[in-house]
Amino acid sequence: MNVPRQGAASLPSERLLRILSAALALAGIGVATYIAIAEAGGSAPVCLAGGEGCATVAASDYSELAGINVAVMGIVGYVAIGAAALVRGDAGRFAGFLLALAGFGFSAYLTYLELFVIDAICQWCVASAVLMTLLLAVNAARALVYAGAELLDADPEH
Q1: Which domains does the chain have, with CATH numbers?
Q2: Model confidence over 12-29: pLDDT tens digits?
Q3: What 3-state DSSP class applies to 43?
């Protein structure tokens, strides 16, 4: 039984946060895999809202970093965050938080490039950025509220 810090009674249980993190990571894997498969086939993800934003972003020099498609990097990141959701205790909490923080930072950088350098928006990239933002929020809550919960469980005064 993980007891949250005092005043956290209105927050979701750590179990629910772990499930949310895993579900969001799975959705992220789906989005990033779709982007990677579309680009590997020599085309671009289909913009469901219309327009050429996805094609423009996919054709840009920024769709790869050190020769690796950024969508593939996204898949790896989402898998790592999903794995952290499966790990109990502070190791899983802080790994999930740090991975989500790094993913959020990278997504923010890519969004900056879309808006101010490439001058095109890919809705699939936006979806990935939203998922990563949600993952940061969920994993931050898990890490900050439940850090050291096992110590509280072992403390006879709590």
Answers
A1: 14-147 (1.20.1440.130)
A2: 899 999 999 999 999 999
A3: coil
68 membership: H or E segment, kind and range: strand 68-69
* pLDDT score of 152: 57
What's the pTM?
Answer: 0.88
Taking only the tens place, the pLDDT of each residue in 91-116 is: 999 999 999 999 999 999 999 999 99
Contact by Cβ (8 Å): 81, 99: yes
Contact 124, 45 (CB under 8 A): yes
Query: What b/e readout covers 33-47, taking b as 16+ CB neighbours within 10 angstroms?
Result: ebbbebbeeeebbeb
CA 34/CA 71 separation, integer angstroms:
9
- Retrieve residue 115's tokens: 């808006």
Q: Which residues contact 125 (CB under 8 A, 6 or more apart)?
A: 35, 54, 57, 110, 111, 114
